[in-house]
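Hi Y.,

Following your request, here is the sequence exactly as I used it, all 396 residues.
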Amino acid sequence: MSNKPAVKMPVEESAIKVPAGFSTKIVASGLGATRHLTVANNGDIYAKLSKFKDGKGIVHLRDTNKDGVADETNYFGDFVGTGIQIQNGFLYASSNTGVNRFKMNDKWEVDKAHYENIVSGLIDKGRDNAKPFVFDRQSNMYVTIGSWNDACRVPGTGQGMVPCTVLDSAGGIWKFKADQLGQKFQDGKRYITGLKNAVGITWNTKTNTLFATSHGRGFFHDFYPQYYTSKQSAEIPAECLYEIHEGDDAGWPIIYYDQFQNKKILAPEYGGDGKKTAGEKAINPKVAFPAHLGPNDVLFYTGNQFPAKYKNGAFVAFHGQNSELKKGYFVAFVPFVNNKPSGKWEVFADNFSGIDLAKPTGPVQHRPCGLAQGPDGSLYVADDLGGTIFKISYKK
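Below is the corresponding structure, written out as tokens. Let me know if you'd prefer a different format.
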């Protein structure tokens, strides 16, 4: 355990741009590659690391003097990954091949030396291998398995695989039992297919449905310059927020969503030219964001601290940037009314990068990755580059 104060980082709390009435506080920094995070009812924070820190893959933070800064930092867990969540008296945390859980006591502490395996044997080929997860109300667990093949191309060519055999074990979300030990990949059921890499995943308790953000595919103009300019490759396809039901198909790799045409377009690997539409049976996104922003988490706000406009709306953490917009590394907000998106999405918290992306003068400092709601209704943001956790609060 360490009682060292938070490390001062290049981006100060006051540099984060938030709407009037909101303020940002750095809870801790220098933590390592913090991905997703979860906050217990007593305010303790647990964050998952994608790289080992002092040989451990989870960090537990506690603020004992209630000044808003973590003064106890404890690392544990012998596996790295992305997903982490408290559920029914356990702390669940994922590796890149499965999900484990630690028993919690009534003080929201875990037995850090022992854990149980819930699911193992999920495919990991090094690329887009995070295994984020979420639970529904019936103790089912939904786990993302991202595709390591960006466009399901035959290696070394611009030709798409027919059929795309990647979809047999990746490129979707699988459903498992949350309380059944020792499950393997084959014990799960594919809940949705055609999602290249849904790092942001959450259960909406108002609609009782799964929502996910998916990373769009990469550039087009490398193999298909006759159809796409480099500028078009930087601007499409959209990064999307989907509402998901069992058996859905989001269309990857056959189609992608073009937010300028507001259409599902046939991918060039499968005979498309940037204009041909396809995917009549594929679901449409609820929201289409600009390309290459890397949505890594999504959270529906259910607290009472923030103004009414935020109630039941969705926050999205963007981990990348759009080179044409010169924009990225921010947290967005999507207003929802009657359980449907209402109005345009907006940038909620910005300047995590610490630099002007149009005229960069140095390296990016922070990349928003994980989101969590605290018991007081505050919003927590994890950064997996600077290893910082920010707390965003509102006061009238």
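Residues 230-235 form the longest helix (6 residues).

Thanks again,
Q.
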